[in-house]
Structures are given as C-alpha cells and as structure tokens.
Amino acid sequence: MSTLIGLSKFIIVVGPTASGKSAVAVRLAKKFNGEVISADSRQVYRGLDIGTGKITKKEAHGVPHHLLDVTSPKKTFTVAQYQKLGQRAIRDVLRRNKLPIICGGSGFYIDALLYEYGIPEVTPNPALRRELGTLTAERLFTTLQKLDPRRAAAIDRHNKRRLVRALEIILQTGKPVPDVSLRQAQGKFSQYEILKLGIRLPDSELKQRIRKRLITRMRQGMTSETRRLHERGLSWKRMEELGLEYRYLARFLQGTITKSEMLAQLEKEIWHYAKRQMTWFKRDKEIRWVTMSKHAEKLTKQFLGI
Question: What residues does the record give for site: Interaction with substrate tRNA (predicted)?
Fold first, then answer.
C-alpha cells in the first residue's frame, strides 16, 4: 500500500534540460492551485544555484517549491532520501488541498517517488570501492552497461563516484535496480490518478536553448558561484562528482582547460545529458508529450475534470 495518503490526483512534468519544464510547472501551479515538488538530483544542494538552473524567486511567481536547498553539497544525497522527503512533500501538499506538481529531469528520482520500489540501503563496502576505484570511468561504465543497461542509459558516464556506487549496489545485491512500469505499480497506486506530461522539443531547438542558456548563466556569474563554493570548502574533487557545469568550471578554475575549451566541452556534455534524459523518459508510454504550455493546460484541465 502506498504511503501517500489524502486526495487522489497529482501531476508530473518531465523533460530534458533546457526544455522549459519549470516554466510550464509554474504556469500550471498558478492556474490550478498547485505547488511544485522538484525532482532534480543537484538542486537539492544549497549554493548550487546558477549552475543547476535553480528557479529564482522572480521565476517562481509566488508558487511554493519543495525539495530545493535540502542539504550541503559536501554531503551525498541519495535517491532513498529523496524518496522519503518527496513522499512527505506530496502528503503535505495534498493535505492542504493543493495540487502537487512534480517537476524535474531526474527520471530515477521520479520513478523512486512514484513506484515505491525498495531502494537498496546497501552498506558501503570500502574494499570493493577501492577495487572499483582503480578502474577508469570508461571501464566502470562498460561494466555497468553489461550488468544494468537501464541504469547505464541514465547515468553520467564520467562520474566515477556514481558509477562505483551503482556497481557496488548491483554487486552486493546481485541484481539491478528494478524497472517498474505503471501497470506493475497500479496495485500500489490504484487510489491515485497521475497525469504525466513531457516537454519535447525538436533537437535543433533544444540545442539552441542549451547554448543560449549556457551563455546566460555565464553572464549571471556561474564562474564566480563555483569559485565561491570552493572558497567555502567544496573541494575540486566533489565538484567533479557533482558533474556538468561544476565539473568543467572546476577544471577551468584550476587552469587545466581554457575558457573556450570549457564552454565547448560543457555544451557538448549538456546535450549528451539531455539525450540520456530522453532515453529514460521515452520508455514510459504513459507520458503525454507536449510542445506548448497551452496544450499542457488543456490536458491538465481535462485530467482534473474542470
């Protein structure tokens, strides 16, 4: 039985990075008396604002947002922790007769939240971690592809910490993270109605948005933000683990790559990340894909029966 209790409807807005899903979620929340619950694996960290595209007060237009700034970036935040806090947030929003709108691009987090499969609480194995840590990221990723293709499709193939942890769980439990379809979960969610909306744009438009947003973030002070995080004690190694913007900005600030190299590599990696996100979401046949917020509003109105 689900731990989520109360009213019976909520909405999920997913899509690749830079697709505009946050703006759609805010618009739906404003129109249908909702609150947004973030499903972003990096926006849970305090201080990672510009680099993660964390929504600003102005952009939120007064709509409450949950699961932002949950913990210090020096700490590791697990999907099991997200599952617990996310379900608590949904209960809280429903209890106040508001519409929960889960919004984000971390498909693994969203699946854990919705389908409540058990997230393995595997105790860290120092010896195994040391052994895996001697392998290259490429070798770790290749191994993960063989053992759990689904997890490999969504993971950052350059993030050794996440690759080691994924393999640690698989090797100690003897099985990959379960792939739960909506049909398999209906027994747990029979009392709920869930509308899944996906924002999908043509590749050419999404690439343009990624480039434009990267330039905007640089102008907003993304480099200064990264330097400030390091001055406050966030190690370069940890920034590598946090991935994408912080990984390449850390390398630039350490002088191992030039600014032009950083921007070129970052734009390429963000695009690859967007493709991994779509690979994850495309397997979910329950998602209703839209390109405009008006279409999302129409589907939401029908879903809510108003």
Answer: 106, 129
